[in-house]
UniProtKB/TrEMBL annotation:
<feature type="binding site">
    <location>
        <position position="89"/>
    </location>
    <ligand>
        <name>FAD</name>
    </ligand>
</feature>
<feature type="binding site" description="in other chain">
    <location>
        <position position="196"/>
    </location>
    <ligand>
        <name>dUMP</name>
    </ligand>
</feature>
<feature type="binding site" description="in other chain">
    <location>
        <begin position="120"/>
        <end position="124"/>
    </location>
    <ligand>
        <name>dUMP</name>
    </ligand>
</feature>
<dbReference type="InterPro" id="IPR003669">
    <property type="entry name" value="Thymidylate_synthase_ThyX"/>
</dbReference>
<comment type="function">
    <text>Catalyzes the reductive methylation of 2'-deoxyuridine-5'-monophosphate (dUMP) to 2'-deoxythymidine-5'-monophosphate (dTMP) while utilizing 5,10-methylenetetrahydrofolate (mTHF) as the methyl donor, and NADPH and FADH(2) as the reductant.</text>
</comment>
<comment type="pathway">
    <text>Pyrimidine metabolism; dTTP biosynthesis.</text>
</comment>
<keyword id="KW-0808">Transferase</keyword>
<feature type="binding site">
    <location>
        <begin position="109"/>
        <end position="112"/>
    </location>
    <ligand>
        <name>dUMP</name>
    </ligand>
</feature>
<keyword id="KW-0285">Flavoprotein</keyword>
<keyword id="KW-0274">FAD</keyword>
<feature type="binding site">
    <location>
        <position position="120"/>
    </location>
    <ligand>
        <name>FAD</name>
    </ligand>
</feature>
<feature type="binding site">
    <location>
        <position position="218"/>
    </location>
    <ligand>
        <name>FAD</name>
    </ligand>
</feature>
<dbReference type="GO" id="GO:0032259">
    <property type="term" value="P:methylation"/>
</dbReference>
<dbReference type="Pfam" id="PF02511">
    <property type="entry name" value="Thy1"/>
</dbReference>
<protein>
    <recommendedName>
        <fullName>Flavin-dependent thymidylate synthase</fullName>
        <ecNumber>2.1.1.148</ecNumber>
    </recommendedName>
</protein>
<feature type="binding site">
    <location>
        <position position="223"/>
    </location>
    <ligand>
        <name>dUMP</name>
    </ligand>
</feature>
<comment type="subunit">
    <text>Homotetramer.</text>
</comment>
Length: 302
């Protein structure tokens, strides 16, 4: 795993220190605190800090209508109600700070979620490590013929080997030149902020990423989806495991109403209602485009 000896020592020290606190803690999250979980070949994700739990979500929700209603609905039921009816503010009462090591091209996808606080490793001040993401052979795939932003079937044999060799050799050559440019051995050496431009997008970077639970769920709904790019999906799946232990009621509601659910347009819902009444609805009578009809069919077939 891509952790330096200094980082490992820091983690060991932090986990050896028991802290007394009056604030609410989540036993499931305490078990994850500081531990790194490997993702891809050199990446990881680990929890640095967190705030809140399932009870904090309910506390925030109940302040809107008074404590006297608490006996009407238990915490699990209340959280499911909030998730089902898109009441997002109570989920913002929980936050988590993650330390993530990831390839730069994955980071560029990840940063599109602009509702978080991010502090990234600076290649202006520090020298990046010689670590590159090289996909496993089963993840070296051709361009999809039906999805312009996705991959199709895996490359095989000599073609797969050729692509992997190009990725490895290009990464190595670019880093060799990076080291040559910044070297001060017999020369002034190029500034690090300029030399970094020559590095490939599969080199690893690191950042601290702090986000509230509502926006984290939005990230996970998109990035843990089966259609998300594999290299970011595996990070989202690892985070899902952590969140499930941190806020089990909230994560259960998220799985039920977001991650495992589908959203139907007004036209699609009208088609379903007509079908339930016994009408035979076709693409021609649906009032939807061919692509919308295919998507509805895929939802109904499961």
């Amino acid at each position: 795993m891509g952790l330096s000896p200094e980082q490992l020592a820091e983690i060991s020290e932090l986990r050896s220190q028991a802290q007394s606190t009056l604030r609410a803690t989540a036993p499931g999250m305490e078990a994850h605190l500081y531990k790194p979980y490997q993702v891809l070949d050199h990446g990881f994700v680990r929890v640095v800090d967190y705030m809140g739990d399932d009870a904090a979500i309910c506390q925030a929700a109940r302040v809107s209508y008074g404590r006297g209603t608490k006996s009407v609905q238990n915490d699990d039921g209340l959280i499911r109600y909030l998730m089902r009816h898109w009441h997002s503010t109570p989920f913002e009462m929980c936050e988590v700070k993650l330390h993530v090591k990831l390839p730069v091209f994955v980071a560029r996808q990840w940063i599109r979620h602009r509702t978080a606080n991010v502090n990234e490793y600076s290649a202006r001040y520090s020298i990046l490590d010689r670590e590159f993401y090289i996909p496993a052979p089963e993840h070296v795939a051709a361009q999809s013929e039906v999805n312009n932003q996705g991959r199709g079937s895996a490359l095989e044999g000599e073609e797969a080997a050729r692509v992997l060799e190009l990725l490895k050799s290009d990464s190595t050559r670019a880093y060799d030149h990076y080291e040559e440019m910044i070297s001060s051995d017999g020369q002034q050496g190029l500034a690090r902020e300029l030399a970094r431009m020559n590095l490939p997008a599969n080199i690893y970077t690191q950042w601290y990423w702090k986000v509230d639970l509502h926006n984290l769920f939005h990230f996970l709904r998109l990035r843990a989806d089966a259609h998300a790019q594999y290299e970011i999906r595996v990070y989202a799946e690892e985070i899902c495991k952590i969140v499930a232990d941190w806020v089990p009621f909230a994560y259960g509601a998220f799985e039920e109403y977001r991650l495992g659910a589908e959203t139907l347009s007004a036209s699609a819902l009208d088609c379903v209602r007509r079908m339930l009444k016994g009408e035979e609805v076709t693409k021609e009578t649906s009032g939807m485009s061919a692509r919308e009809w295919r998507e509805l069919e895929a939802v109904l077939k499961g």
